[in-house]
Amino acid sequence: MPDAGASLVDFTGVEKSYGAVRALDGADFSLEPGECVGVVGHNGAGKSTLMHVLSGGVAPDRGRLIVAGEEQAHWTSARARALGLRCVFQELSLCPNLTVAENARVVHPAIRGLGWRQRAGWLIIDKLDEIFLGHGVRAGDLVQDLMIGRRQMVEIARAFSVSEAPARLIILDEPTSSLDAHTAGQLLMHVRRSVESGVSCVLISHILGEVLSACDRIVVMRDGKVVMAGAARNFDRAKLVGAMGGIEPETPEAQAITAIAARGEGSVVVRVRPDRQTDDWDVVAREGEIVGLAGLAGHGQTDLLLATFAAASHRRAGAMVSAPVALVAGDRQSDGVFPGWSIAHNIGVRSLRQLRAGPLLSARLEDEFANAWRERIKIRTPDIRNNILSLSGGNQQKTLFARALGSDARIMLMDDPMRGVDFGTKLEVYDLIRAEAQRGRTFLWYTTEVEELKNCDRAYVFRNGTIVAELARDELNEEQVIHSSFAGVA
Amino acid sequence: MSAALQTLLKRPWIWSFVGAGVVWLAAIAFTRGYGAGGMLTAAMSLAVFTVIVGVGQMFVITLGPGNVDLSLPANIGLASAVAMKTMGGDDRLLVLGLAAAIACGLAVGLANYLLIWALRIPPIIATLSASFIIQSVDISYGRGLQIKPPPGFADFTNIVIAGVPLLAILTVLFTIGASIALHRTIWGRSVVAIGQNQRAARLAGLKVEPVRCATYVLCGALGGLNGALLAGYFRGANVDIGNEYLLASIAVVVIGGTSVSGGRANLPGVWGGALFLVLLLTMLNTFGVSAGVRLVATGLIIVAVITAAGGEKPTR
Amino acid sequence: MSAAAAVPSANASRAEWRRRLRAALPGLSLALVIAAIAWLNPRAISYFGFTLMLNLAIPIALATMAQLFVIAGNDLDLSIGTFVGFVCCVSATWLHDTPWLGVLTLIGCIALYAVLGALIYLRNLPSIVVTLGMSFVWQGLALLLLPKPGGKVPGWLQTIMGVKPPFIPFPIVAAALIAAVGYFGLMRTSYGAVLRASGGNALAIERAGWSLLKTKMTLFALAGAFGVLSGMALVGITTSADANIGNGYTLLSIAGVILGGGEFVGGVVSPVGAVLGALTMAMAASPLLTFMRIPPDWQVGANGAILIIVLAARVAITRKGSER
Asked: ipTM exceeding 0.90?
């Protein structure tokens, strides 16, 4: 019995776990027709999981889902689509081997028969014109030939496009991560226009400024729960950061430690220039420093880390890496974890040479090594011989840290490693990093969360694969980072 | 006692031995117990050849999805000819002949790897194409009289001690060595890591390409050794001597419980799978079936086993 | 438009140019082979010459198209060769003696291919192992049907394959027809786009509501259908069958698809390119080698070498292309 004034969506007590990883721990979420809700929170707070539940792609373990006034026992993506729900997730879902028009067709099954290609092409180009005037995309372009910014535009336009059923709710998960300032602005204006015409929007973004300006209501998530919600006008940046779980204000010891490093007395251990750098600006790191790599996501920071990694073992023009390196992966599943192995094996894999007794590996040495790190970094597990997937996300990440820190590497490359890690774990690891830096280890730290940069001595801001700014300790805040990353663009 | 039994039943390779046992029982039931012992001895003799290449194939398959060596049959054929021609019927050239065959296999493995690495061809295609080329080399090289193995060598491959073939004993020792290599050397650990997650292995500091090269080279070398031994056992070399070992080498790996998507391997299973296959063929021969039925049965069993085992579960 | 937008379009057009070059490869290779033949034996370039040389091109092109459908879904069919051999045997025996049994068997084979596709999808099986196993099954069944070469081709089949159209040799007409069907079906229809999408980003189209089970079964069923056509065409040309007759078709079909610009993963295939590739392989596989006086012993190896050369050429062109 749909009620005329009912919420579009009303979720209560949603829980979802993946093995030992508690992604959602009793989250409540509601949405009215014609409103734009912003969802903010650290990496690992549960935002994407909640959206997957909302879009029907993931079934929750527990929770009450009411959509359009009716309680849903089995909420599936087919029913969500039928009700007019569209999503743009962080993992782009275009098919690179198809053209833009064909990709549009794939989500609109009704477009078939004679002339389908033309109709699909008109549909997507019209929508692109409406949202992103001057986009330069053609219907016949093959998606794999498009740069990532254009791909994201196509994906967004496709979500807003309508063939038969109207779109009632559009979920945008980090939609501006690959767009420049101008295009991002176009999108946010379109979001407001749609909302005014009755479409609801959910906007997830790390850029708090966007959320504050474009949304009617804001929801803050932390550790799988919604911790604060209210009208956007009642929030400001400080309040949001505080609710998300901001970094502790500087303790006197922390200030002292960083003061030592800030003297910059150590020898240079890393000097690497980004591939696309046209001037002679290098990323330079001295012994014992924690150097941050900042800027919008996917603008060359990871490439620089990988270049540094490669330069440690192969000669590379213009790069100097004078000590062994180890990398801590951020995308655990694809870059870090060996899912068939135990925790012990996962920790020891970078240090196999040290774990030999004679010519063969020694199980005893491996276990001792792993147990030592379990104590030091506080991995919560009864037995380091258990499979690594029995650990929670945060503890899996700690395993990856142990792997790197336990090795003989003097330079640690960190590729946004706090993704999907709960807040408590993050604090523990920050302390460990600072302690290791004091002992002379060098850290190159790419992070998508500007608040984490406060752990660094200084940071380089990246834009389109090149360094565009270098910020000192006191300049490491969101305004400065965003300002520097857009400075110099026409 | 039952706790030990429970852990035994959990091992992935146990079912291959159970299957082998079942098939053996079916065969001797048909002959009413006649020749049961002889059947086992013969089965062990024949299983040796599958185990040797099965081990090589197991290491290659463990490297990850898409890694397989389809050039084995051609490799074996060529190596058998090389071994026989080098030995030239003279027992004193025995060691030289074996070395030549192994070197030939090594070269094949290296060539395979170079195709994969330099031309970025998927291993399936690289080894398939290489096998055609090797076949041609073999046909033109092995042209002429069929060369018999030196008598001492041929006898050696057929020695049986108390019902157990000497070659089988040596191969078991070899398998134990391979198991130690798999579990306790850096190379073995790297192979398993690469199979689980090649990118993570590289980022964890493991030397991915040298390990892959070594693995393909090892597989090739084992194929070469196998060719020489086969020529000794069957008293002659020929181009087709290795044909059945392609499916057999992959089958024993799959039946033995090694994951086809890589990253999980075990050695006892190769023996279990080999015994199962050989006894299956023995059983079919005992029943008196034709070549056609044999092929169909072998193929269907492979499909059935892989279907039952299932593939890699897709990650979230 | 800002400078930032100009750079992306330059990159896009460079990628497009590289892709166009790769798309021209099949036509270029074919032209190269024809030129080589013309140089070695000018009399081969005639209506009669082409008809003879491209004799076997039709079954090869059909088998290549079958492989194309499988590769479009990120799989590989290592059994197509022995399957074609089996179909040959069925055509030369049952189809000739008891037509309804023959037709039923062939339709059953296509259904079996669809079932294999379903099995591969539902159990997440590696297609290499499954098709390798099936290759032995088809081989065994062919041997059971025809332990020794023989059989008799159905008259109507022989007639069709013996058609002699004016001006253009029949193989070329047939190849054009196969290319047209493949191109239209896979590249122009709306469901064809979905089929290719299943190879490009399966998860995405599943989220969009399409059934991956259906796409996989459709692709495999199409492979089975074209495999059946290939076997029938082959026996129509050779007039009798033999269990081993199709064994080389596996490599030839893979070579044709790759030569035609297809990729093993990503759903990137070109039906027209594949047919051109098949024609190239057909001529390079035997006629060219014979004209080059390459001894028969080496002709088998030459097939492998050709595939390697083609792949090397593609790598050379896309050297600066995407790297994972």
From this structure: no
